[in-house]
Amino acid sequence: MNSEKGILVLGATGPAGICLLRELLHRGHHAIAYVRNPGKIPLELASSPKLEVIPGELTESKKLASAISKCTAVISFLGSSGSKVDDVKLFASYYSDYIFPTMRAYSVQRIYAMGTISIRRPEDQPSALRWLAIAIFGRVYPKMLATMLEIEKVFDTKADNLEWLLFRIASIPGKSDETSWRKDREDGDTFVGWVAESGWSFSQKRAALARWLVDAVEGKADTWIGKMPAVSKLAGSKANLE
């Protein structure tokens, strides 16, 4: 059993989660994946000595504690499947009732969690594109929209004494296989700021988002702790083709 402390990934079997696992391992981090179905993790990742896979449900307190006790920070994609659940408060309750208390119990302070631009912050600028996207999204996936607003609420009200960052994304295209990940992780620089500020765009490849998240756990986004910045590809930036 690997005793090295690592980065815990929640939602590790989705495309963004798999890209994140690839990025963590690529950069030499010990990664911990707490997953419902370990079989969804690609074999080349599951066989890495730097990856520890812990099967379990978020409501299984002892198993979750085992995973959190081994980490220095948590990165969470929970909520991305919000359109598939009936209870729009479900993912928010995972944070407030299970993840946050367990982090506090094991003195794990840092969590980076996913939100979407359906979450509004006072610093955001007006954007017709954002308005249209929320209108369409809310009509097609009303439960996922409501889920994200509950996640916003729980970070605003229940994450006290934790060092949290809720990154808000719009479109994150891209595949999670190794070839696509290697190409997409070089897809331009990352914008971090407020919606519709200069440099904000509507899209960022999943692998490039994963690259930024690992930058963040390495200390390059500390000024955004306790905030909910929009994260996207920096408008006008070019892919690194070297």
UniProtKB/TrEMBL annotation:
Superkingdom of source: Eukaryota
UniProt xrefs under Pfam families: NAD_binding_10 (PF13460)
Domain called NAD(P)-binding: residue spans: 11-217
Entry-linked Gene3D superfamilies: NAD(P)-binding Rossmann-like Domain
GO molecular function: oxidoreductase activity, acting on the CH-NH group of donors, NAD or NADP as acceptor
Family in the record: Belongs to the avfA family.
Protein name: NAD(P)-binding domain-containing protein
